[in-house]
Design brief:
By secondary structure, the protein is an alpha+beta fold. It contains 14 helices and 24 strands. Its EC number is 2.7.13.3.
């Protein structure tokens, strides 16, 4: 029995170890044969990208040489005197490729940017275009040696003003170009830059086998690139993979050549016999490991089997010393003890989990009881809008049966003016999107149910890690309260409207008197009448503001929205208040983009907001200060901001600025209705208004308007 069990373990472990090695070799060989064309194409594509990149980089470096020389030649197309060496040095750029700048007249160097042996010498014929091969303005020469040290050079020649008279010659240091190219070489990849004569301007290889100036005209990719072609080639004689790209604007080109072995990956690339030997050694090692593992596992199991068989026959649990060595007995005992310990630990953890679940259930019950006992409606929802839980007070306020609302976005909410409210503009969505508490009044109109006015305050739900997973909202039914306020506002509106008519009549009568229709007036009488008219007009403005606010709050205001050029509207508003800025010696400016999309808005109401914000800024900015109006185009809307250099507003006072009849210390004059009315107008347009200020650093009042707003 012992021999058979060990033999079986040895056979199965050896088979399990050797088979994967053999399968790996077969699969690797098959994949290699199948994927060679695809890998070759990837190498060609990579070489093409590198050739294009090197050609573009060389064009960029040539531009660094060419641009200052062309500007110099352009500004001195018909020079009255020959440029000096100092003038030439000012025209040189600092790129390392730019070695010298020479002025040449009929091949003779007459001026140089640096002290050099070129002065007075004749340039090699290759450095300049021949009489029958002169381009319009720029010539890129083939390679030629330096007269100074024999270093390989090339030239960028610019007509000055034409090649028949003189030219500006920028000498290029090809050693610099060659050094820059070396980083692109690998043991299997070579890179060359060739001129129009197929000479190597630069060559990169590991190891280097071709010097600068070598003739590469026999190579097929070189022939192709010198004809201005761009593409890739598989060279049949060597199997190499080549890509080539011409240098724009020149007769030069870049050639990238890779050995065919670069497309071969895996263990068969270079050493098939070595790979076979490796597989054999791996198989032998696997067999040896299988033998050791079978001995390690089978011996204790066989001895454990003998112990269990002895136990079944009524023998003692303690085996004879010859059958079970102490080390093996410890190994099996550790396994048994580990299972016993694991069972005890799992039992303890299961009991702890049951207690934890019971505690969580109790806490959940308490939380549900607390939420249910709240008299206001409570709604907890996910970030997607799915309702998590709600109390019975909410269903009462919504006139719905419990659990009938699965997504809060299905609520038919309307804004204060009674317009349909897109779900993304509601406080429930804004609280989750902005990560801050939001509150607003909404109208809820369900078929067959009375109109309800709801005060909804929403806040984001954050997990300890800080991310937002949803929101919680408190919903109050303020219908009765708003009805009481409406009755009061109706009374105030009626009273205000009754005041408006006599005030308007008084202003007109005083105006007729001031015009002299009832007799001449002295200067003193005219001043008194002007003061009285101004007071009546301020009172009339207050009455108009009260009536407008009443219309907004009662939902009776109907906005006449039309596409509006906000830049032109803002400019006309600034023109209207420009007299006040001039009188107070203030700088008033407008910063707006060249193109701003039309904004759907009520021009008259928005004009009132802009003038109010700018007028406040002018009033509370000291003499010599600045008021800046800025327009910005955002993703889904337009933002207008008014920034001043006044006294600023304390943080604790800012929240009260947009409340009716409330004022900050810095804004201690006025009625306290202007900013409140601004808020009503902006919110009716679907926008938002806010203030940013610090004491002593001025204030910025801003609002944004959506580009896609529902019609009012």
């Amino acid at each position: 029995m012992v021999t058979r069990l060990r033999t079986q373990y040895l056979f199965f472990f050896a088979l399990a170890a050797v088979v994967p090695v053999l399968v790996l070799g077969i699969v690797e060989f098959s994949l290699l044969q199948r994927d060679v064309p695809e890998r070759e194409q990837r190498v060609l594509d990579e070489n093409q990208r590198l050739a294009d990149l090197l050609a573009a980089n060389l064009r960029y470096q040539l531009n660094l040489v060419l641009d200052p020389v062309q500007r110099a030649a352009g500004s001195s197309a018909a020079p009255t005197s020959r440029p000096t060496g100092g003038t030439l040095s000012q025209w040189m750029s600092t790129t390392p490729l730019f070695r010298h700048l020479l002025l040449v007249e009929r091949r003779r160097v007459v001026a140089s940017a640096r002290s050099t042996l070129w002065l007075g010498r004749l340039l090699p014929p290759a450095a300049l275009p021949g009489p029958g091969n002169r381009p319009a303005a720029v010539f890129y020469s083939p390679m030629f040696p330096s007269l100074y040290d024999g270093a390989p050079l090339a030239a960028v020649v610019v007509a000055f003003p034409d090649f028949s008279r003189s030219a500006l010659v920028g000498l290029l240091d090809l050693n610099v170009l060659d050094s820059q190219l070396q980083v692109q070489a690998t043991p299997t990849r070579r890179v060359a830059i060739v001129d129009q004569t197929a000479q190597a301007l630069a060559f990169a290889a590991q190891p280097r086998t071709v010097p600068i100036g070598a003739d590469l005209s026999r190579l097929a990719p070189v022939k192709a690139v010198l004809r201005g072609h761009r593409g890739t080639l598989r060279l049949p004689e060597s199997g190499d993979l080549a890509a080539f790209s011409p240098v724009s604007g020149t007769s030069w080109g870049v050639v990238v050549n890779s050995a065919a072995s670069e497309a071969l990956v895996g263990p068969f690339a270079n050493n098939l016999p070595g790979f076979g030997a490796g597989l054999g050694l791996t198989a032998l090692a696997a067999v040896g490991f299988a033998y050791w593992l079978s001995e390690r596992i089978s011996r204790p199991l066989q001895q454990l089997s003998e112990r269990m068989q002895g136990l079944a026959l009524g023998n003692s649990l303690d085996p004879p010393p010859t059958l079970l060595a102490p080390a093996t007995a410890l190994e099996v005992q550790v396994l048994i003890d580990s299972f016993r310990t694991m069972r005890q630990r799992i039992g303890s953890e299961a009991a702890a989990n049951r207690r934890l679940v019971a505690n969580l259930s109790a806490e959940k019950g308490k939380l549900e009881l607390i939420i249910e006992s709240i008299t206001e409606g409570v709604l907890v929802y996910e970030e997607s809008g799915q309702v998590i839980t709600a109390n019975s007070a909410l269903w009462t306020q919504l006139d719905s049966a419990p659990a009938t609302l699965t997504d809060w976005r299905a609520l038919p909410l309307r804004d204060a003016l009674g317009e349909t409210l897109p779900s993304e503009r509601s406080v429930l969505a804004r609280a989750v999107r902005l990560g801050s508490p939001e509150s607003a009044l909404y109208r809820l109109a369900r078929p067959g149910s009375p109109l309800r006015i709801l005060q909804i305050a929403a806040a984001p739900l954050r997990i300890p890690e800080g991310s937002i997973i949803g929101g919680v909202a408190i919903v109050r039914d303020v219908t009765a309260q708003k009805e009481s306020e409406r009755l009061r506002e109706d009374f105030v509106a009626t009273l205000t409207h009754d005041l408006r008519t006599p005030l308007l009549a008084a202003v007109q009568t005083l105006g007729f008197t001031l015009e002299g229709q009832y007799g001449p007036l002295s200067d003193g009488q005219q001043q008194i009448l002007l003061a009285v008219i101004e007071s009546h007009r301020e009172l009339l403005g207050l009455v108009e503001s009260l009536l407008t606010i009443y219309r907004y709050e009662a939902g009776r205001m109907r906005l006449r929205k039309e596409p509006t050029d906000l830049v032109a509207l803002t400019a006309s508003c600034l023109e209207e208040v420009g007299t006040l800025a001039t009188a107070r010696k203030l700088s008033l400016s407008l910063d707006a983009p060249n193109h701003l999309p039309p904004v759907p808005c009520d021009r008259q109401q928005l004009r009132r907001v802009i003038i109010n914000l700018v007028d406040n800024a002018l009033k509370f900015t000291p003499t010599g200060g600045r008021v800046e109006v800025r327009l910005l185009c955002q993703d889904a809307g337009v933002q207008l901001s008014v920034r001043d250099t006044g006294r600023g507003i304390a943080p604790e006072k800012q929240a009260a600025l947009f409340v009716r009849f409330a004022q900050a210390d810095s804004y201690s004059t006025g009625t306290g209705l202007g900013l409140y009315l601004c808020r009503q107008v902006i919110e009716a347009h679907g926008g938002r208004i806010w203030v940013e200020s610090e004491p002593g650093l001025g204030s910025t009042f801003a609002f944004d308007l959506p580009l896609n707003s529902p019609s009012g």
